[in-house]
Design goal:
The complex is a heterodimer of chains A (119) and B (107). Chain A is mostly beta strands. Chain A contains no helices and 11 strands. Classes of the chains: A mainly beta (119), B mainly beta (107).
Chain lengths: 119, 107
């Protein structure tokens, strides 16, 4: 099964941007859709968006549209999620996860990246 | 967006008990429903996909059922290692949405 390794924790000021990476260990991500899901402290899971295997199609939840950018570098099998105009409510653990199709189950997850937004 | 309502939000049961969690969708989602387990400080783990299919390597003490709008997740005989929060998730239509979670504790 694919193992996903995410970048480390980040501390950002309100209004800044953060870019989180997600890389497959021992596998290539070129066949997988990659989702981004976040979890605020003590809260549930919230789907943010998805990028297709070739990286030329992304969809995001309406609340993140205009603020989230998902990209992938096929040469390094790495996927990126950038969230801009950060506010305190964006403090959360951000996860990447794979699926075999656009709408499906999420069968492999990264370890999570804590993003803290604080002045 | 499809709303997913889980109940209860938490439960406490004894080792060996049968535990059932329900998940209700705000509209018909056929069998496009998955279940995940999340332990503290860890990423979610897929347990059940397509409402009733057990993911490879997952204990058979876990099972899922239902279709349309009403779904269940059952732990046949609760064990200490099952202490976690469980989430349902629909994939009938975007955005993917999750239930609010059910925290399972040992009595």
């Amino acid at each position: 099964q694919v193992q996903l390794v995410q970048s480390g924790a980040e501390v950002k000021k309100p209004g800044a941007s953060v870019k989180v990476s997600c890389k497959a260990s021992g596998y290539t991500l070129t066949s997988y859709y990659i989702h981004w899901v976040r979890q605020a402290p003590g809260q549930g899971l919230e789907w943010m968006g998805i990028i297709n295997p070739s990286g030329d199609d992304t969809r995001s939840a309406q609340k993140f549209q205009g603020r989230v950018t998902m990209t992938r570098d096929t040469s390094t099998s790495t996927v990126y999620m950038e969230l801009s105009s950060l506010r305190s409510e964006d403090t959360a653990v951000y996860y990447c996860a794979t699926s075999g199709t656009y709408l499906s189950w999420l069968d492999a997850w990264g370890q999570g990246t804590l993003v803290t937004v604080s002045s | 967006d499809i709303q997913m309502t889980q109940s209860p939000s938490s439960l406490s049961a004894s080792v060996g008990d049968r535990v059932t969690i329900t998940c209700q969708a705000s509209q018909d989602i056929s069998n496009y429903l998955n279940w995940y387990q999340q332990k503290p400080g860890k990423a979610p783990k897929l347990l059940i996909y397509d409402a009733s299919n057990l993911e490879t390597g997952v204990t058979s003490r876990f099972s899922g059922g239902g279709s349309g709008t009403d779904f269940t997740f059952t732990i046949r005989s609760l064990q200490p290692e099952d202490i976690a929060t469980y989430y349902c998730q629909q994939f009938d239509s975007p955005p993917l949405t999750f239930g609010g979670g059910t925290k399972v504790e040992i009595k």
